[in-house]
Amino acid sequence: MSPITVTHYLVVGIILFVCGIVCLVVKRNIIAMLIGVELILNGANINLVAFSSPQLFASGTAPLLLDGQVFALFVMILAAAEAAVALAIALQFYSRFGTVDVDQGGQLNG
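The structure corresponding to this sequence follows.
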């Protein structure tokens, strides 16, 4: 068996990113759209960590080994805050309209 390389991580990140885009575009449910956004962010995190791999540098060590990990941590914090706000909006939307179908959102004003 061949070892897992940076390319494998990049492919997994791209697959997650594309699945998130497809989920975001196709679904009409607020919760499913939120899951699509989370997939996009997780795909970006995997790519950030993969790009900070020492295998990508000629000397074998990156100048700062934690760049990708620090950016991924910030993205995770942002995703947690986004999920909390989005779930609060979804609950308010459901309590007002009785559904989480985004087509009903055209009735929102102000």
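Residues 52 and 65 are 6 Å apart (CA to CA).
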